[in-house]
């Protein structure tokens, strides 16, 4: 269990991130920001850190949570140098999944932690290899509606989404949307005064 000496604010509406935080004993106040999510130039790792920091700063600038530790995150799927965001239509989800089928891509999550004048960012990268998917398998998954709110059009934690993935190399929780080990190490090493031992 992780215990903090200050309130935690999650600058995200993601139910998956809330569930992951609950796994380690944290129950944040949820404060999605609507921050600009325009993809910045540069490599994916620093880019997701920049996006997470943008979301975190928007939560801090709102001024509604003085003294709290603000946590923000941004997750993307990258294949062949292309960023695969959330699909806008079932057809786009189908095309993304067909492109991922039988191939290895990388999931990046940037994490930003802000408290007072301090702001720290870090990211995790996990390589994910998809099974060879048949068109009917893709269609069945898209029909669940689950791909529509997820980067890369899949959720590894979904009942059917778990069947898409053949192998991962890296943090599983990163693929879900928040790398818990990376988050904990950042708290431990950069905000030790906020951890209750």
Describe the model:
- The chain is of the alpha/beta class and 197 residues long.
- It has one domain: Maf protein, CATH 3.90.950.10.
- The chain is 32% helix and 25% strand.
- The protein is built from six helices and seven strands, in the order βαβαββαββαβαα.
- It has helices at 15-23, 44-61, 90-100, 135-143, 172-176, 180-190, and strands spanning 8-10, 29-30, 69-79, 82-84, 104-115, 118-130, 165-169.
- Strands 1, 2, 3, 4, 5, 6 and 7 form a seven-stranded mixed β-sheet that branches.
- Helix 1 links the parallel strand 1 and strand 2 (29-30).
- Helix 3 (90-100) crosses helix 4.
- The longest helix is centred in the N-terminal third of the chain and has 18 residues, at 44-61.
- It is elongated.
- The N and C termini lie close together (10 Å).
The total count of strands amounts to: 7
Task: Write down the Rg.
Answer: 17 Å
Calculate the mean pLDDT score and round it. Answer: 94
Structural class, by secondary structure, is alpha/beta
CATH fold node name: Maf protein
Main sheet overview: 7 strands, mixed
> SSE order, as H and E?
EHEHEEHEEHEHH
Global geometry: elongated
Q: In the CATH hierarchy, what is the architecture at level 2?
A: Alpha-Beta Complex
Number of domains: 1
């Amino acid at each position: 269990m992780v215990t903090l000496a200050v309130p935690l604010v999650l600058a995200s509406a993601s139910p998956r991130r809330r569930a992951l935080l609950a796994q380690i004993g944290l129950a944040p106040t949820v404060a999605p920001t609507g921050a600009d999510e325009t993809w910045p130039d540069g490599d994916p790792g620093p880019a997701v850190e920049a996006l997470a920091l943008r979301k975190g700063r928007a939560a801090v600038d709102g001024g509604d949570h003085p003294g709290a530790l603000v946590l923000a995150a941004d997750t993307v799927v990258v294949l062949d140098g292309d960023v695969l965001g959330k699909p806008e239509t079932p057809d786009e989800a189908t095309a993304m999944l067909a492109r991922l089928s039988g191939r290895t891509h990388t999931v990046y999550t940037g994490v930003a932690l802000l408290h007072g004048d301090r702001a720290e960012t870090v990211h995790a990268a996990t390589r994910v290899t998809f099974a060879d998917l048949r068109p009917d398998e893709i269609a069945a998954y898209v029909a669940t509606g689950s791909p529509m709110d997820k980067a890369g059009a899949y959720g590894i934690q979904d009942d059917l989404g778990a069947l898409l993935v053949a192998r991962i190399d890296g943090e599983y929780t990163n693929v879900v949307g928040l790398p818990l080990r990376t988050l904990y190490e950042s708290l431990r090493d950069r905000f030790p005064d906020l951890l209750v031992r």
